[in-house]
Amino acid sequence: MKIPAIKKLVENYNLEELGAAENALMEEQPLAIEVEGDDEGEQLTHVYAAIWIISHMNENNVDFKTALREYTKKVRVSIN
Q: Which InterPro entries does the UniProt record give (predicted)?
């Protein structure tokens, strides 16, 4: 998971575009948007993160940094 790649997605694409990218990755189809990542798994992780962060920003009226912090906290808890 690379924070700059997630930030780029959040800044440049909307939920519809990110959802389409998620579906394309799941179906092993070409992407209509640029998603950074070493492989499809990392690309999918970045798309999932961007979707979660945008949704969290919209639902809780918070900025990117706050939503990112909440997301990384959630990831850390799931790993431990």
A: DUF6952 (IPR053810)
Cα distance from N-terminal residue to C-terminal residue, the chain: 16
Helix (H, G, I), strand (E, B) or coil at 62: coil
Cα–Cα dist 14/41, whole Å: 21
47, 18 in Cβ contact below 8 A?
yes
pLDDT tens per residue, range 30-77: 999 999 999 999 999 999 999 999 999 999 999 999 999 999 999 888
Q: Is the distance from CB of 35 to CB of 47 less than 8 angstroms? A: yes
* Domain map (residue ranges) of the chain: 3-79
Distance CA 71, CA 49 (A): 7
